């Protein structure tokens, strides 16, 4: 199995604060890899570096074998890595369908030459994009709100739409950042099912930060536990749950059911 994301000895300092401390981890191609750990463990900082929000202070990050250390999000996107993004304010007045239709980075309609001289091709492409967006709405069970403005959707529906935008972009690896937060159980089941389907059927690799341990247990294998800026342990959730070091890091030694 090829390594999709390879974090090598990465450190991130904010002034005197060592947020990530010589951390090394791998996300293998075709996996749904979870990243968990107590508050302040460095998960978000690590994610931010992998997603191109900021560069590491030291260390290297490889994407599918290529050194991408310090590349910005748009450069990573063109290499197939995408992080779920909140529906930006400016898109909230657009409908669910429009939000999906505008995702492809290089729509023919945006190309001046095509717009002027190849109108037929542009129209064909728009029809194709609309069809794909409608299919994605169907997968997400959002067809009934396709003409609703994104800003009027429930929190859970917005998360599903975010995932829809990811599907439209056709990435190879997706970073999911706390998708369960504020989502009801029914919609969460839909979200989890879509992630599993994309993983199994389309071979998408997922790297998931999540505080909902049930969701992690259901989706992720392996699970990487971070503490104090580095990796503490890695393995299937069934092992992680009973690992004394993990219990100590989360609960100060008080045995619990693994829920934060
Ligand atoms: N921009 C910043 N400036 C200064 N310190 C920061 C910054 N971002 C994060 N930190 C610090 O780095 C450490 C790691 O934070 P981080 O948000 O990465 O942890 P986390 O594991 O994602 O925590 P949580 O689960 O609470 O989101 C924390 O002590 C945090 O206060």
UniProtKB/TrEMBL annotation:
SMART domains membership: AAA
UniProt keyword annotations, A-Z: ATP-binding, Nucleotide-binding, Transport
Pfam family membership, one: BCA_ABC_TP_C
Occurrences of domain ABC transporter (ranges): 5-253
Keyword hit for Cytoplasm: no
Gene Ontology CC terms, in alphabetical order: plasma membrane
Domain of life according to the entry: Bacteria
Gene Ontology terms, MF aspect: ATP binding; ATP hydrolysis activity
Gene3D superfamilies associated with the record: P-loop containing nucleotide triphosphate hydrolases
Family listed: Belongs to the ABC transporter superfamily.
Protein name listed in UniProt: ATP-binding cassette domain-containing protein
Organism for this UniProt entry: Nitratireductor arenosus
Lineage of the species this protein comes from: Bacteria, Pseudomonadati, Pseudomonadota, Alphaproteobacteria, Hyphomicrobiales
